[in-house]
Structures are given as structure tokens and as C-alpha cells.
């Protein structure tokens, strides 16, 4: 049994004849929290979908627990997804179900547990994210941070081995951000799971994760522990970590010469 | 000049290919919805919940429209028939028009407008807010869980709605003919019963409404499922649902009627 | 809305729909007059059935006593073979005439049975001996023209013979 629960080998993926990934290699060791960082539109979320089997790679493979994802049949994908949990960017709660029913959904779909046990489990999960008192609210009545936390409770409802986060800090206030950060680390360690976090929040992430992959222009430009990357002198990493205005990612979108543009009225 | 012509032709060509590709995708979608229907029958309460939203909530518009359609038919029919001294045939006119054509067709058009757009908007928004993706990642097939129950609910609701429409319309015609105009009650019903055949007219009407139910529901589901996940995309999809459903219903009506008469 | 209220409304909806269908069949259509009871089958051969269709009524003295079950072509006799389902509560003598009439001026065609005088009655599988086919419009017109033509020639004949007498 390999030490890596997820492996991405030589992955190339194109979407609408646009090449998003060119030969990507990544390893996600068991029990660790790994971040995938990069600018907007660099294909980070697509990587999560490739791991989850929602998309097929053009070249290369993604292995989960030793098995190649896109070679699985419907049953195989089903078994794989039972071990995974994904937190979507704005929660993706089912708007027609209450908070309680949302968290109970995976349990009711995949297990034959009686309602009394499901009730206890749901309350346990909601307690872990601090929202046991909100169990009867509807998603429309929740704030952004609360919705995100309920979605997190739903993601870990069946104690998955791999937890994926798609931009979990997007649009949150500092307190909610801190809460989610805290939960990601604690849940990962409590469940003995592996967490993959796609984000571009530098300071919060650097404080929490074990390893980071930097993706830009379809390739992995840098990887390492937070400490290593903070010291890195690579131009892209430096610009990203320190939030510099100009660098390998230019400030100006492609435009003709400024003087020419002004003179050509 | 020549390359403008070429680019126009290329544009037409690509749009036609787009439409054909989309039609193929819709056909595969239809087959998947049928193939994954097992769960809808094992957990029938899913279908029942959707019958409430598509069928029960459409009752008011169907019944009120039917009443007015029947009353207008009665008025117009009497207006023309009494010139030929056949005013007692008003019942036959109203009943045949409703049971054969207006019942199934108008119900289908109203259904597409009310329930069809609701289905499209709901599924389109579920797609836009990533709820369908979330379901997929939780190893729950969204077509089996979300699409198939709504499909069967629409197919089951339509014939009942059409029958209720026809019945209400006949009642509307009766209201106009007997209390208002003064045509003989017995003549009204007996002429109708003598001229409306169960197999030819009523059964054919039911068959038509079932076919329309399938068409309208699958179009509404497909447009929602295929909608671009933006606000504008969903709004355009609901428009497409109404337009495509209406065209499909009227086209199928012609095809079915020619089969049934010939 | 909880499950029980939902189920109630859907149940009401489906019940109302079925009631509407039944009402349509009974009050609006003619299902009640369709023979659902027991029937026996007799056959009749016609030179021309005109516009007779299956499920057309079989009437006697204007009352519906049965239905046309099947119409086919007998390739040996070169005649139409019409199968009639008659309600078992009605018995007809063996020399009954089965003629094809039109209801109203341009209405649907039906089979009219005129009872004969024999004591023996038709049983299941019997054949009706005397039949009268439908009136075909072309034959009617050609007969009319022929009559008119022979009238004209007999008139001129009598005028000539009158002249001769003078």
C-alpha cells in the first residue's frame, strides 16, 4: 500500500481545445493537509474534478488508493466517491432541505441506518462545526459562513478518507475564515483523513498546511513546505506569496503600445 | 464578397451542426432518464412530491382556462350554428373540440408555461449553484434522483390535467348553452352522447395528452439540465422551454391527428 | 409541506383526474351504450359495404342491438364478409335481412336488421342469408341517367307511333 492516497501522474487536460494542464505530477500523502495554490483560472478546481472522476484526463492518469480513476466503471466510481468528500465553493447546500436534512442526506442515501441513529450522527457532525442549534433552519436563512460550515458537516457526514476543499475561504469575514481554517485542520487530524485544499489565501493557508503545490500556466512551478516557499526566490512564488503588483504575472493585460493607442484617435 | 458569403454559409453550417448535436444530446438525456428510472419507482414518494408541484399546483390555471374556453366555444358555436338551425348541436361542437383537440393541446401549452418553466428554472439553478455537482460527488446520480422523478410526475400528471380540462370545458359550454341561451338540457346531452365516440375521440385524446406529457416534460428537464450556469443562461433556458414545448406539441398534434384520422 | 399533506393533495388530484376521465366516458361519450354484455357472432356477405366501418352500430327498428366486429374480403366469393356481434338478449329469425343504411342524409353507415318470419333463430356462427348492400352514389347517378335516357326514347317512340296512326 503506497504512502500516497492520491497520485497525479503526467496529467494533461484540455477543455474546449484550450490546454489547461501540461504534464502535472502531484503526490498527496496520507494524513496530510496539502494545498494547491495559483492564480484565478489556472485550473485548480479542475484538478479536484479530475480527482473526483467528474472529468477525464486527455493524457496521463489520476490514481486514488492505487486505482486509476478514469478506468473505473460506474460501480467503481461509486465506491471511490463514497470515500471522498468535497466542499464546494459556496457550500452548494440543497436549498429545499433544512440544515438537518442536508447533513442527513448522504447518510440516508448510502446507509440503511434507522432514523434514530441518523439523528444522533447528524447532531454529532453539526456539533463539530458548532451549528447544532441551527439544525432546523433552511439554507436561505443562513449567513455565508454558516452555510459553509453546514456544507462542511455534510462533507464529513460519512467520515471520508479524502476531503477536498474548493476555495473554502472565498468571501468570508476574518472570524469565519479562522473558524473554517481551524475546522479543516482539526477534522483532518480527528478523522485521520487527507485534505486537499484549493485556495489562493496565502497567510491563512501557510499557517495550517503541511505541503503546497504552486500551479501556473498549466504546470507545477513550485512545491514545498510553507517554510521553504516563504524563503523561495522563484519570481512567481515570490510575487504570489508577497502579493506583488507586477512580476511574472503581469499587471497589464495584453495591449498595443500606449503612445500609439492614444495618438490613434 | 466571396469570403463574406463563405463565412455566412459557415455560420449557418455551424449553427445547424450545433442544433443537431444538441438534439442528439437531448435524445441521450431522454434515454438516460428512462434508464435510471428504477429509483423513482422504488422510492415512489419522490415522484409523488413532484406530482404535487407539477400537477396539483397547475390545477387552478387549468380549470379556470378550461371554464372560459368552454364558455367561449359555447357562445361562438351557438352563434354560427343557429344560422343553420342546428343550435342544438352546440353540445357536440363543444365536446368534440375539447376532447379531440383543445383538451390535450391547450393543457399541454399551459403545462409547458407553468410547470415546464418551473422545472427548467429549478434544475438550471441547481446546476448553477453546484448542487447537482455536489450530488454527483456524494455518489448520488443526479439524473436518477432529480430528473427521473420529475419526468414521471409530468407524464402522470398530464393526462389527468387534460381530462379535467375537457370536463371543465364541457361544463363551461353547458353553462352557456342551457341556463344562459336556453337550449334544451336533454337535447344538449343526448346529441353529445350520440356523437362522441369513446374509442375514436376520448381514448385518442388521452393518448395525445400522454404523448404531449412526455414531450413537454423532457424538454423542460433537458433545457434546465443543459442551461449555462448563469442567471442569463437560466432565463434563456426557460424561454426555450416554452418555445420548444409549444412547437413540439403543435407538431406532434398534427402527426398524431393524421394517424388517428387515417 | 410534510409528507402526509402532500400525499393527501396528490391523492385528491389523481382521484379527480380519474373521476373526470370516467365522467367523460360516461356522460360525454357513448360508453354506456357500447355493448359490454355478452354477444353472439353472425356473418353477413355483401356485394358492397359502402362506407361501413368496424364498431358501427347494428340496429333493429332504430334501437342499437349490437356492433360490427370485423370487416374482411372473401377472396373466393369476391364479396365483403362482415362479422356482427349481437347482444344475447336479442334473438333474430333465420330469415332476417341485414341491410346497410345511412343515418341521416350524409351520416355514418350502420347495419339495419329487419326481422323475418321463420321460427328458427340465428345462433352463434350462423350466416345471414339475405343481405342488401349499401347504396353507392355512382350507381345511383348512372341508374338515374339511364332512366332518363330510356324515358326520352320511349317518349319519342310514342310520338312517332302517334304520327303513324294519324
Structure report:
The complex is a heterotrimer of chains A (265), B (262) and C (166). Chain A has 10 helices and 10 strands. Chain A has helices at residues 44-52, 74-82, 99-110, 115-128, 144-155, 174-191, 202-208, 226-231, 235-242, 258-263, and strands spanning 4-15, 18-29, 33-38, 59-64, 67-68, 84-87, 162-166, 194-199, 211-216, 219-224. In chain A, strand 1 and strand 2 (18-29) form a beta hairpin. The radius of gyration of chain A is 20 Å and the shape is globular. Helix content of chain B is 88%, strand content 0%. In chain B, helix 4 packs antiparallel against helix 5, helix 5 packs across helix 8 (185-195) and helix 5 (90-128) packs parallel to helix 9 (198-226). Chain B is globular and about 65 Å long. In chain B, 49% of the residues are buried. Chain C is an alpha/beta fold and 166 residues long. Helix content of chain C is 33%, strand content 30%. Chain C has 2 helices and 8 strands, in the order H-E-E-E-E-E-E-E-E-H. An 8-stranded mixed sheet of chain C has the order 7-1-4-3-2-6-5-8, with no helix packed on it. The radius of gyration of chain C is 26 Å and the shape is elongated. The termini of chain C are far apart. Chains in contact: A-B, B-C. Chains B and C meet through helix 3, helix 7, helix 8 and helix 9 of B and helix 1 of C.
Layout of helices and strands:
The complex is a heterotrimer of chains A (265), B (262) and C (166).
Chain A: E1 4-15, E2 18-29, E3 33-38, H1 44-52, E4 59-64, E5 67-68, H2 74-82, E6 84-87, H3 99-110, H4 115-128, H5 144-155, E7 162-166, H6 174-191, E8 194-199, H7 202-208, E9 211-216, E10 219-224, H8 226-231, H9 235-242, H10 258-263
Parallel strand pairs in A: 3-8, 3-9, 6-7, 7-8
Antiparallel strand pairs in A: 1-2, 1-4, 4-5, 9-10
Helix pairs in contact in A: 3-4, 3-5
Chain B: H1 2-35, H2 38-42, H3 44-54, H4 59-81, H5 90-128, H6 131-137, H7 142-181, H8 185-195, H9 198-226, H10 231-261
Helix pairs in contact in B: 3-7, 4-5, 4-7, 5-7, 5-8, 5-9, 5-10, 7-9, 9-10
Chain C: H1 3-28, E1 39-46, E2 57-60, E3 63-74, E4 79-87, E5 97-102, E6 109-114, E7 127-128, E8 130-132, H2 137-165
Parallel strand pairs in C: 1-7, 2-6, 5-8
Antiparallel strand pairs in C: 1-4, 2-3, 3-4, 5-6
Amino acid at each position: 500500500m503506497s504512502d500516497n492516497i492520491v497520485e497525479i501522474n503526467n496529467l494533461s487536460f484540455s477543455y474546449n481545445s484550450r490546454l489547461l494542464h501540461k504534464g502535472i505530477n502531484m503526490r498527496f500523502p496520507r494524513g496530510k493537509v496539502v494545498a494547491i495554490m495559483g492564480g484565478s483560472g489556472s485550473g485548480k478546481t479542475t484538478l479536484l474534478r479530475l480527482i473526483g472522476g467528474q472529468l477525464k484526463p486527455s493524457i496521463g492518469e489520476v490514481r486514488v488508493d492505487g486505482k486509476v480513476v478514469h478506468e473505473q466503471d460506474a460501480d467503481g466510481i461509486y465506491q471511490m466517491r463514497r470515500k471522498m468528500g468535497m466542499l464546494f465553493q459556496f457550500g452548494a447546500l440543497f436549498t429545499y432541505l433544512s440544515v438537518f436534512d442536508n447533513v442527513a442526506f448522504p447518510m440516508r442515501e448510502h446507509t440503511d441506518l434507522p432514523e434514530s441513529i441518523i439523528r444522533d450522527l447528524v447532531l454529532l457532525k453539526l456539533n463539530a462545526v458548532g451549528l447544532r442549534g441551527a439544525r432546523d433552519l433552511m439554507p436561505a436563512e443562513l449567513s455565508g459562513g454558516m452555510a459553509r460550515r453546514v456544507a462542511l458537516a455534510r462533507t464529513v457526514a460519512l467520515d471520508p478518507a479524502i476531503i477536498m476543499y474548493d476555495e473554502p475561504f472565498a468571501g468570508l469575514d476574518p472570524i469565519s475564515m479562522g473558524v473554517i481554517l481551524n475546522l479543516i485542520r482539526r477534522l483532518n487530524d480527528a478523522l485521520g483523513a487527507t485534505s486537499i485544499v484549493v485556495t489562493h489565501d496565502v497567510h491563512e493557508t501557510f499557517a495550517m498546511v503541511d505541503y503546497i503545490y504552486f500551479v501556473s500556466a498549466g504546470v507545477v512551478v513550485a512545491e514545498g513546505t510553507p517554510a521553504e516557499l516563504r524563503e523561495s526566490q522563484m519570481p512567481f512564488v515570490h510575487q504570489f506569496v508577497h502579493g506583488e503588483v507586477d512580476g511574472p504575472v503581469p499587471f497589464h493585460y495584453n495591449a498595443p503600445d500606449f503612445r500609439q493607442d492614444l495618438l490613434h484617435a | 464578397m466571396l469570403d463574406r458569403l463563405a463565412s455566412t454559409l459557415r455560420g449557418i453550417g455551424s449553427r445547424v451542426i450545433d442544433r443537431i448535436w444538441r438534439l442528439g444530446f437531448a435524445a441521450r438525456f431522454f434515454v438516460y432518464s428512462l434508464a435510471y428510472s428504477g429509483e423513482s419507482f422504488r422510492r415512489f414518494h419522490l415522484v409523488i412530491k413532484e406530482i404535487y408541484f407539477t400537477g396539483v399546483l397547475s390545477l387552478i390555471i387549468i380549470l379556470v382556462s378550461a371554464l372560459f374556453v368552454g364558455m367561449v366555444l359555447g357562445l361562438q358555436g351557438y352563434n354560427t350554428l343557429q344560422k343553420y338551425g342546428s343550435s342544438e348541436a352546440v353540445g357536440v361542437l363543444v365536446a368534440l373540440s375539447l376532447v379531440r383537440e383543445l383538451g390535450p393541446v391547450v393543457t399541454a401549452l399551459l403545462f409547458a408555461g407553468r410547470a415546464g418553466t418551473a422545472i427548467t428554472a429549478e434544475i438550471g439553478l441547481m446546476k448553477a449553484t453546484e448542487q447537482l455537482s455536489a450530488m454527483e460527488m456524494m455518489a448520488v446520480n443526479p439524473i436518477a434522483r432529480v430528473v427521473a422523478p420529475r419526468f414521471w410526475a409530468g407524464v402522470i400528471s398530464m393526462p389527468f390535467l387534460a381530462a379535467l380540462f375537457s370536463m371543465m370545458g364541457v361544463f363551461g359550454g353547458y353553462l352557456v348553452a342551457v341556463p344562459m341561451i336556453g337550449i334544451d338540457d336533454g337535447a344538449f346531452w343526448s346529441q353529445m352522447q350520440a356523437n362522441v365516440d369513446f374509442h375514436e375521440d376520448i381514448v385518442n385524446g388521452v393518448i395525445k395528452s400522454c404523448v404531449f406529457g412526455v414531450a413537454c416534460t423532457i424538454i423542460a428537464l433537458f433545457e434546465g439540465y443543459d442551461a449555462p450556469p448563469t442567471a442569463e443562461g437560466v432565463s434563456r433556458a426557460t424561454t426555450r422551454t416554452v418555445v420548444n414545448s409549444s412547437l413540439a406539441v403543435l407538431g406532434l398534434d398534427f402527426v398524431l391527428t393524421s394517424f388517428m384520422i387515417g | 409541506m410534510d409528507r402526509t399533506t402532500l400525499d393527501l393533495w396528490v391523492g385528491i388530484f389523481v382521484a379527480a383526474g380519474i373521476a373526470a376521465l370516467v365522467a367523460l366516458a360516461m356522460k360525454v361519450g357513448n360508453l354506456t351504450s357500447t355493448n359490454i354484455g355478452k354477444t353472439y357472432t353472425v356473418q353477413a356477405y355483401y356485394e358492397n359495404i359502402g362506407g361501413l366501418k368496424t364498431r358501427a352500430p347494428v340496429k333493429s327498428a332504430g334501437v342499437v342491438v349490437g356492433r360490427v366486429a370485423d370487416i374482411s374480403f372473401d377472396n373466393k366469393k369476391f364479396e365483403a364478409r362482415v362479422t356482427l356481434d349481437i347482444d344475447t338478449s336479442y334473438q333474430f329469425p333465420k330469415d332476417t335481412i341485414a341491410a346497410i343504411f345511412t343515418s341521416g342524409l350524409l351520416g355514418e353507415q350502420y347495419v339495419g336488421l329487419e326481422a323475418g318470419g321463420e321460427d328458427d333463430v340465428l345462433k352463434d356462427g350462423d350466416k345471414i342469408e339475405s343481405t342488401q348492400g349499401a347504396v353507392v352514389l355512382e350507381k345511383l347517378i348512372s341508374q338515374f341517367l339511364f332512366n332518363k335516357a330510356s324515358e326520352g326514347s320511349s317518349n319519342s317512340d310514342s310520338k312517332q307511333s302517334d304520327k303513324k296512326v294519324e
